[in-house]
Structures are given as C-alpha cells and as structure tokens.
Write a structure and sequence with these properties.
The complex is a heterodimer of chains A (218) and B (619). Chain A is an all-alpha fold and 218 residues long. Chain A has helices at residues 18-43, 59-84, 88-119, 128-159, 169-199, 210-214. In chain A, 70% of the residues lie in helices and 0% in strands. Chain B is globular, with a radius of gyration of 25 Å. The chains are: A mainly alpha (218), B mainly alpha (619).
Amino acid sequence: MQYLSGIDDHRTSTGLDNRKMLMWAFLGSDVMFFGTLIGTHLIYRNRNLSGPQEEILSIPITTISTFVLLMSSLAMVLALAGIQRGNMGQFRFWTAIVCIFGSIFIGFQMFEFTEFAVHYGLTPRTNLFGSTFLVMTGFHGTHVAVGILWLWSILFASYKGKIHQGNSLQVEIAGLYWHFVDIVWIVIFGVVYLIGAYGAEGRALEEVPHAARAVGIG
Amino acid sequence: MAANIGILKRPVSTEGVWGWITTVDHKRIGILYGVSAFIFFLIGGIEALLMRVQLAQPDSTFVDAGTFNALFTMHGTTMVFMVVMPAGAAFFNFLVPLMIGARDVAFPRLNALSYWLFIFGAILMNFSFFKAAFPDVGWFGYAPLTTSEYTLSSSTDYWVLGLQIMGIGTTAAGFNFVITILNMRAPGMTLMRMPLFPWMTLIVSFLIIFAFPPLTIALTLLLFDRFFGTNFFDTAGAGADPLLWQHLFWIFGHPEVYILILPAMGIVSDVLPTFSRKPLFGYTTVVFAGAVIAFLGFGVWAHHMFTTGLGAWATAAFAGATMAIGVPTGVKVFNWLATMWGGSLQFKTPMLFALGFISMFMLGGLSGVMHAAVPVDTQQQDTYFIVAHFHYVLFGGSIFGLTAGIYYWFPKMTGRMLSERIGKLHFWVMFIGFNMTFMPMHILGVLGMPRRVYTYSVEQNWAGLNLFVSVGAFIIALSILLLIINIVRSARKGEAAGMNPWAAATLEWAIPSPPPHYNFAVIPTVRSQHPLWDEEANAVEPPPLPAHGEPHMPDPSYWPIVVAFGVTMVAGGLLIWQATTWVGLFVIAVSGFIGIRGIYGWVFEPVAEESAERVHAHH
C-alpha cells in the first residue's frame, strides 16, 4: 500500500496525505458529474410528450430510504472513530452497519425501479423522465454499490490484519466518499423528489402514489 | 511480504519492452506520451494534407464527400485529443516533477494507467477504420445528428467509446498533477516560487477535473441513446432538446481550448526569461492571468452557439464574458513583451518558436475578439474565418509553443543538443508555411467559403486562394520533416548537452541530462524563484549520492496496463454486443472481471521481493 502515497520518505508540502487530497479532488470532479445529470433532469422537467412523470415519485417511501442512508453516515462516523481509537470491535460492527444500511437503500431503489416498471410502465426508454430519472438515480445507486463493495473489502482486510489503527486513513478516505454520496442523495431528494413530486403539474397533494399504498403507508 | 496475492509477481526489471510496459517512472511515461503524440501528429497531418489536396482545385474528385467528412472529423479529433493534449501531458510528466523538485508524481501507477487508457482509447477509435469506416460526425459529434436515427454507422460508437476511454485517462492524469503540484514540492518551493510551466499545469489539471465530467456524461447519454434506446437526444419522438448536447459539449469544449493553450503559455513563460537573461516580468500577474483565463473559461461556452437562438440576454452575457477573457490574455502578452524589454536577447531556436507563438497567438486572439461580437459571429459562423481563427490559436499558439518546448527541453530529456542550424530552418519554414496556409483562410471565410465543404465550383472564385493554402500546407509538412531530421541527426551525433546548456534558472537544469531515474540524489531546498541564477553553487555540480545509495523508487507494475486493458475491452465488448449479443456479453463479463481483478491486484500489490531486500539492507 505504501506506494499509493508515492515516495514514502517524502513529507507532503501541505501536510495533507496524497490519497486524502486525491479523494477530495475526485469528489470535486464528481460534483460536476452529478451536476450534469441533475441539470439534464431539471432541463427536461415537464417536457414529456407521454407517459408517467414526477407525480409517480413516492415521498413517504423515499423519506424512509433517505433516513436509512443518512443513518449509514452516522454509522460511518462511529466506525472511523472506532478504528482511530484502536477499537476494532466498534470499527467492524459499525462498518457492517454502513454496508447493511447502504444495501437497504439499494433495496429500496430496486423496489422503486420495479414499481415504476411494473405499475407505471416506466423504463429508461419510455420518455424523457424515464431516461433522466433512472440514469441519474442509477448513477447514484452505482456510487452507493461501489461504496458498499469498498467498505466490505476494508472490513474483510481488517480480519487479515491489513487494516488497523495505523492505517485508519484508509477508512477515513472511504468515509469521505461515503458521506459525499449521501450528500448527493440529499440534493437529489430535495431537488428531484420534493420539488418534483409536489411541483408536478396537475398533482393533488393528497394523492398517494401506488408504491406507498403497496407497502401500506401514506 | 509473503502475501503475494497477485498472479503476477511485481516486476523488478526496467529493461527492454517489458520495462516500458510496466514502467511507473514519470520520465518514461512522458516519453511514451510524447512519441505517441508525435505519431498521431503525423496521422492527423496526413489527414489534413488529403483534405488540402481535395480542396486545391475546384470540383475535385480526389476524395468523395463521405471520405471528406471522415477526414475532417478524424483530423479534429486526432489533433485535439491525441496530439495537443498528450503532447502537453508529455511535458507535464517529464518536467513537472523535475521543476518542483520531486522524485516522481504523487501516484506513479495511476500515471501509467492514464497513459495506457489514452493509447488504448486512441487505438480503439482508429480501429473503426478496419471495422466500418472512420467516424464522420465532426470532432464535436453533435447530437441528435449522432443518434442512431440519423447515424447508423457503428463508426460513431467507436468515436464515443474511444473518446470516453481517453477522457477517463485524462481525468485521472488531472487528479495526479493537482496532487503532485500541491503536495510534492521540494522544501522551500512555495507556490509563488514555482516556474510558470508547473503553474499552468496545475491550472490545466483543475480545468481537466472540472471540464471532463460534462463530456463524460454527454458521451454516456449518447451511448445509452445509441445502445439502449433512451431518449436524451430523441427530439422527434420524445421531445428532447436539440441543444442539450451542444450545451454539455461546449461546457466541456471551451475549457478544453484552455487545456490546449495554457501548457504552451507556460512553456513560453519559462523560455522567454532564459533567452532574455532576465526574470519573467510581472510573475504574479502572469500566474493570476492564467487562473483568471481558466475561471472565465467556464462561463463562455455559449459563444459556440450564438446562431442557435438563445435569446438576446443570454447571448449578450456570453459575448461580454468572452471579450473579458481578452483582458487576462492581453496581460500575459504585455508581460512577455516586457520580459524581453531591455534583456540580452539570444535568438536560439526555442526563443524563435516562443516569439512565433506570441505573434501568431496574438493574431488568433484578435480574430477571437472579433467573433465574440455576436453580429460579426453570425456572419462568420461555419466559414473558413473560424477555421483560420482556431488554427492561429491551436497551431500558431499550441503547436508553436510546444515546439519551443521540444527544442528547449530536448537536451534535458536526451542529453544531446538539437542542431541550431536545422532548428532555425525548421522555424522559418514552419512560420512561412503556417501563414501561407491559414492567413488566406480569413479571406476565404469573408468571401463566404463554408467550413467542412468537400468541394466548390469554379464560379465561386475561391480556387486561387485554395491552391495557395494547399501549397502552404505542404510547406508545413516539409518543416515537420526537418524536425524529424533534426531529431535523428541528434540521436546519431548530437553534441552532449551537459546539465544546463541554456544557463537557465529552474531546478530541472540542476541535475544531469538525461536525469537519473530518481531525479535528485538529494531533494534540493529552494530559496528563490530562480534557484540556479541566485545560487551559483547549485549550478555547478549535483550533490553526491548519500551514503546509503540510490533513493528507493517505486517498483514497476503490471496492473496499470491490465486495468486499462480491462476497461478498453469492456468498451470492445459493447461494440461486439451490437453485432452478436452473447459474444459481446461474454467479452464484457470477462474484461470487466479483468478490470476489477486488476484494481484489487493494484491495491494489494506488494513491493517486489528484490527491492524489499534492498530496503531492508539499508536499515
């Protein structure tokens, strides 16, 4: 691992580890990725010629999945605090929780996509909303999935002794990524779901989408 | 290090072909970039010459309209993505660590990955020639014209995927150089003591990491439209916005032109002081002018779209922002002139090319301000006037600046001097050929000759100037031949360069030519902007190796090329998938596995056993 930081006997100019700075730079770049996707989605709002659009978004269900994802960030903080104090039990427990919560979020997303396809006939090919919404949230879901894979790998490596208090920076960097992915979701939840669902043309506020009824809420 | 989980042992040898394939040395990667860029420069140049043969005569049938489309598409794409950008990357790689006093870049293996992604992407795109035809949709690939509704040919798929892969490599390189320059500077090398070339590299790297994502997304959306039937650019069937692609592409595309020109500006800002024998005038303003150009560059993309009907307010705002870029650019030009003012000018070949850069780039900049004015641009849009403009900034600017860099740093890279006599001849032939080629294009544009037409009739009275232009193009080709002769001659009997043949001021000249693989035996401590001018002691002899021997450098690695291969073959699998679904899926699965396996191998790669012993012996 030591070569990730380049030449090991060289202190960095800023005092910040190279890998940590790389993650910050990547996240800056990733803002542009998501910005482009969310921007495209917003440009195409209410331009659909046919098919379902924002009114099918379920705020009650997505609120739950958003809450789960936010709690995974809390777990991430506790996991990092654990390994930084050398408490491997705490680290492993909370890292597993992050992965599980992330997986629950992905599960919600799969449920949502299936609902849209089965009950509203919405696929990426249906209309502009289908294309922009599914590709944008799918891109975010891929980010979550990569994060889960990464954290499982770190957890696995910790049992082999490759992750320990001495290189807790590995966990910190993965954590930066994980928090960022959460923050992007908050933007998507606010801009796409809340503004979209409640700002959609011709939607009555009390109307409950099918997805929410299906699981008995809303 | 028992846990050698890799199938591939970490390589040790730096000899032979495998040494180059597994190299993580920034200087070798720089040379790989440079040689690749030069080969593509010859290919792109041949494409240009074929177009000029076609246009030399009215009603010519040398190539047909379709071939002509492919020629200007590949000429543009090649020159932008496979020549000027990798040529810039060649200089970033070879020089930036030397100029800031580092032993390598921050992430040596990521650096190798960038190169392999670039070369594999470039090969994939050019491979379309054997499969279908060359891409023929323009270097800008405007959707919806590039959706499968209008462009069936799979050549467009090669264009999209090739560009995508090169873009990933470029973005990775952008990260690498941001971190390298911010974090790997020698003690005392504060940001405001850095030479201008690393400064411009830093700014270009920031441009890359913020400008490439919109292109990546635009290409992804187009890819999804073409492969999976999404509706992002389906204007007729789904009501998509016909301008979406143009916005996304130019949000990338305008910063891109600064990605192409700022490295050349950095080179010239370091060449001029050396041959004027005085420091760069207004160092701080030149640095900040570069940053301002880059910043404003993100707010001017719609000046590529003035004729699309954006509305008066939007157009006026973009016109104003575009003209504003003329200010920091002018600041730079005046600083360069003031650097020479009162200096002891030495008209060596690098200096000639730097002067050629300033004068030709000025002309391109001035015509740029002309079509920042919307009514003027409306007249000039899609005429040869635009072709003249951007060749003055890209050839007269970037290529002249990069050539100044070749002549300036060739002795450092190879240890041998290039011939001054041939070099000066090269400059004058190229300077004359360049102006013969592109100056008359201004007139042709004003006369109304449109871009991208494959022929014209006698009655249009464009024949004389076009013939003149074509002759000029072949004179440029002659000048490139002179460069090749010069390099071959130097390799055979060039005189030894020594450490600092130009008596320059910056750190790269404080070490032997070519530099040892560890660059600096002892990392220097920097006390001023011009370490070699201010501290005579530094300029005499490099300090001896410390007692414990050579500095320990990263081992070579197979994983960068493995990961790059996996990524490229996923794209290859997509192309196969179009023809034969199951074979394509199989290729995607296998190469996806190779890519992911490569990443894990990379992360857990141990140091080579031999070097582990070496390190051990030191302690």
